[in-house]
Amino acid sequence: MYDYCIVGAGLYGCVMADGLAKRGKTILLLDKRENVGGNVACEVKDGIVIHKYGAHIFHTDSKRVWGFVNEHCEMRQYCHSPIAYNDGQIYNLPFNMNTFYKLYGADMPSQVKELIEEDRVAIKNPKNLEEQALALAGRRIYYTLIKGYTEKQWGRSCRELPASIIKRIPLRMTFDNNYFNDKYQGLPEKSYNELIGKLLNHPRITIMTGVDFKEHKEVLEGVSRHIIYTGSIDEYFDYCYGVLEYRSLEFRTVRNTHTDNSQGVAVMNYTGDGISYTRTIEHRHFMKECNSPVTWTTTEYPAKWEVGKERYYPIGDEKNLALYARYKALADKQDKVEFGGRLGDYKYYDMDDVILKALERLDTIND
Ligand SMILES: Cc1cc2nc3c(=O)[nH]c(=O)nc-3n(C[C@H](O)[C@H](O)[C@H](O)COP(=O)(O)OP(=O)(O)OC[C@H]3O[C@@H](n4cnc5c(N)ncnc54)[C@H](O)[C@@H]3O)c2cc1C
């Protein structure tokens, strides 16, 4: 008998497993994938650390989360500065004076502010994402850097997407290409596998990979006192109210032997609509040093989701949030199982959010 069966060895499951093991609990941690780490899992090829499920950059304002991560894994400084490509031109991201200089040819913040103001479309109550973006950032920024990327990402026209997806568009009036505003930012010195390995390095944790909970539900419920479920909440309840919708991604990872530097930057976003992918990651640029004579790239293709495919981004519109609320009400009535992580909560979380959620949950477990 285990004290806990944790379903899903992503960050949420691993932080919970570590904390519970430190509290003297026994844990059976399982994942249907063949590897632990969930979406932060990495693999090393030709001496290059490959982020298997897309670029993962750690950033947080939480001292507690940053302290926790550094306790388990050596982190190093990394400043994320992606590039946007559209129609043969490149632009710095996030939107800052370098971007505006390229877009408007103006190099003074006061000038740029005026130009953006002139370019804005006066729409009082934006009815969709397009109107919202035109009202907030103006035509040039919207058509060059937002429209194509967003439509590919969500598989729908910006006119069909809710305005609420974009609450505000930060326009940075300094020449600063650091993508994130958070106080603490970085990457593991080695890889996220080190963080996961340290979290799971307890004799009280038994790990099983390649095991799908739903195929062994009865047995697993029988051998554990509590269940922490980090898979999709609707799947746990056999979709009794319906299916929560997601957007999926396909990753195409390629070993390039003709060059050791194919794009000169870790992340290149493709913001035009003539190209079907949204971004290409060149993994070696996440590393401080890399002497490999080859280079590995991963291109991300947004994809339609259906049950059975990997869930990446929750659709999170009114219909789906109402459905989630019904599952949440059902979940609250269970005494043996609790839900957590991005799939259990049906919410997009960054890594720091998930870690903080797990730490706060652990704070409440004292016995
Ligand atoms: C493309 C992409 C890029 C991202 N980039 C960043 C970034 O740069 N910075 C950042 O902070 N965050 C980023 N994130 C978010 C980050 O990936 C998540 O915050 C984090 O991985 C969530 O951890 P989790 O444990 O909740 O979920 P997951 O990592 O998804 O773990 C859940 C695990 O549960 C397993 N599972 C599900 N159902 C079952 C079942 N029935 N039986 C057994 N196992 C099951 C799954 O296989 C999975 O391994 C990104 C996310 C995506 C999709």
Overall pLDDT: 97
**Secondary-structure class:** alpha/beta
**Helix amount:** 25-40%
Looking at CATH, which topology of the domain at 2-78 and 188-242 and 315-363 would you report?
Answer: Rossmann fold
Main-sheet strand order equals 8-7-13-14-15-12-16
Strand content: 15-25%
As residue ranges, the low-confidence spans are none
The CATH architecture term of the domain at 2-78 and 188-242 and 315-363 is 3-Layer(aba) Sandwich
Number of E-state strands: 17
* Largest sheet data: 7 strands, mixed
Secondary-structure element series? EHEEEEHEEEHHHHEHEHEHEEEEEHEHH
Distance between the termini: 17 Å
- In the CATH hierarchy, what is the superfamily of the domain at 2-78 and 188-242 and 315-363? NAD(P)-binding Rossmann-like Domain
Shape: globular
What count of helical segments does DSSP give? 12
Instruction: From the alpha carbons, calculate the radius of gyration and give it in angstroms.
Output: 22 Å
Your description of this structure?
Pfam families: GLF, NAD_binding_8. With 367 residues, the protein is an alpha/beta fold. Helices cover 32% and strands 22% of the residues. The protein has helices at residues 11-22, 63-72, 97-104, 109-119, 129-137, 139-154, 192-199, 217-222, 233-236, 318-332, 341-344, 351-363; strands spanning 2-7, 27-31, 42-45, 48-51, 58-60, 75-76, 83-86, 89-92, 184-188, 205-209, 224-229, 246-256, 267-270, 279-282, 295-304, 313-314, 337-339. It has a seven-stranded mixed β-sheet. Strands 10-2-1-11-17 form a five-stranded parallel β-sheet. Strands 5-9-6 form a three-stranded antiparallel β-sheet. α1 runs parallel beside α12 (351-363) and α5 (129-137) runs antiparallel to α6 (139-154). The mean pLDDT is 97. The structure holds flavin-adenine dinucleotide. Flavin-adenine dinucleotide is lined by residues 7-13, 30-33, 38-40, 53-57, 212-214, 230-231, 249, 312, 341-343, 349-352, 354.
